[in-house]
Amino acid sequence: MRILLMLAMLCLPSLLWAKPDVKITVEAKQQIVVEKDGKKVVKLVEAKDVQPGDVVIYQLHYRNDGDTAAKNAVLVNPIPNNTRYIDGSAFGAGATIEYSIDGGKHYKQPSLLTYTVDLGDGKTEERVASPEQYTHIRWVVSEIPAGKSGMASFQVRVQ
């Protein structure tokens, strides 16, 4: 019993220090078409010199460098100025994806993301926000095991 207690006391500090350490990098990409072996191939390259109408793909690469799993890890990315979110383009395996229309203060699923419009005469109306109104996207990844990585992404159109 005494040895078991001593082992538990030796292991306790390492358990207290164990924690997740999630690192995130963001890349902006765009698709180009190149010819390879006589065939047209779509390739992702760094987004440079984008013009109005161009589509930019944002990729959030995440990795848990900690020694325990990260539970309900939150990734947030604003919709860049002078762009509009492309409806349905957000992706993240194992993540719940929510959106904000108020600068990232509140997040909800698209069907629950509403705002109030003053109709005059003291009347108001609640409306569902459109993707063009989104200001931020949030991914809540259920679990990122220690040493593992993943990616979330979304697309915007340059205005």
Structure description:
With 159 residues, the protein is mainly beta. The chain has one domain: Immunoglobulin-like. It contains 1 helix and 11 strands. Strands 1, 2, 3, 5, 6 and 11 form a 6-stranded antiparallel beta sheet that branches. Strand 1 (22-36) and strand 2 (39-46) form a beta hairpin. The termini are far apart.
Map the helices and strands:
Layout: H1 2-17, E1 22-36, E2 39-46, E3 55-64, E4 70-78, E5 83-85, E6 91-92, E7 95-100, E8 114-120, E9 123-128, E10 136-144, E11 149-158
Antiparallel strand pairs: 1-2, 1-3, 3-11, 4-10, 5-11, 6-11, 7-10, 8-9
The CATH top-level class label: Mainly Beta
The CATH architecture is Sandwich
Helix content: 10-25%
Tally of domains: 1
Number of beta-strand segments:
11
Which stretches are poorly predicted, pLDDT < 50 over at least 5 residues? none
Mean pLDDT equals: 91
Oligomer: single chain
Overall shape: flat
Give the amount of beta strand, in percent: over 45%
Run of helices and strands? HEEEEEEEEEEE
The major pleated sheet works out as:
6 strands, antiparallel
Radius of gyration: 22 Å
Question: In terms of structural class, how would the helical and strand content be classed?
Answer: mainly beta
Distance between the termini: 70 Å
